[in-house]
Amino acid sequence: MVKFVKRQDYDQMSQYAAELIAAQIWMKPDCLLGLATGSTPLGIYQKLIEKHQAGLLDFSKVRSVNLDEYCGLSPEHDQSYHYYMRENFFKHINIDPKAAHVPDGMAEDMEAEGAAYDALIEQLGGIDLQLLGIGNTGHIGFNEPEDSFPTGTHRVRLAQKTIDANSRFFASADDVPRYAITMGLRSIMNARKILLVANGASKADIVKQAFFGPVTPQVPASVLQLHPDVTVVVDEEAGAQI
Ligand code: PGA
């Protein structure tokens, strides 16, 4: 079941989503959070940091698994998702760095890394709350449109649209890695709760397609229609067509 929450602007969207994550941590202090990168969640991380700094939120027992990482970028690269998570979130809260996992984009054997990541998620008890953004291709994590839904954590070739969208973070489109490693849809769909956030007019069309169009691997996020507990939080612009 999908519940929609429309908020006035980015700040309100971030506030609402942060409250849901905080509630999850209050209910289960040692929960496993599935975390996302991209520009959309930055406001949420900021709000969670503020709650932590105000003494309202304790991350000491929280564990986390991130959705994805670019292939070939080391954790020190300033566009890697290791770096993003450290700089935008982890270093500002009291999560145990050893409990905060991000797939290894430098792994020699991506198949083995993918299998190990899936095994880790299972060993940690499965994801309690998965935070997702949505790409213009309909991707969640880096699961791009395909002929069938990808299941396990795997290496993926990024869609040209994704490379173009993400080139704003790099010196040029040529510098955007062509491949990434991403959690597949099995771990995402097995999360007990899913929280998807989207803001801005450029997301309005894909949000409508994902949640009101057919369930198809051509729009990977559409699979979320089959999940029992999804909350979609959008701002006015991203929610303009729903
Ligand atoms: P964005 O990316 O938050 O930077 O728009 C979303 C995504 O690609 O999942």
UniProtKB/TrEMBL annotation:
Family membership noted in the UniProt record: Belongs to the glucosamine/galactosamine-6-phosphate isomerase family. NagB subfamily.
GO biological process, one term: carbohydrate metabolic process
Pfam families for this protein: Glucosamine_iso
Domain named Glucosamine/galactosamine-6-phosphate isomerase: residues: 11-225
Alphabetically ordered keywords of this record: Carbohydrate metabolism, Hydrolase
Catalytic activity, EC: 3.5.99.6
InterPro entries: Glc/Gal-6P_isomerase, Glucosamine6P_isomerase, NagB/RpiA_transferase-like
Role summary: Catalyzes the reversible isomerization-deamination of glucosamine 6-phosphate (GlcN6P) to form fructose 6-phosphate (Fru6P) and ammonium ion.
NCBIfam families: nagB (TIGR00502)
Taxonomic source organism: Candidatus Gallacutalibacter pullicola
Metabolic or biological pathway, per its Swiss-Prot or TrEMBL entry: Amino-sugar metabolism; N-acetylneuraminate degradation; D-fructose 6-phosphate from N-acetylneuraminate: step 5/5
Protein name per its UniProtKB record: Glucosamine-6-phosphate deaminase
Record field: catalytic activity: alpha-D-glucosamine 6-phosphate + H2O = beta-D-fructose 6-phosphate + NH4(+)
One GO cellular component, as annotated: cytoplasm
MF-aspect GO terms: glucosamine-6-phosphate deaminase activity; identical protein binding
Active site: D68 (proton acceptor), H139 (proton acceptor), E144 (for ring-opening step)
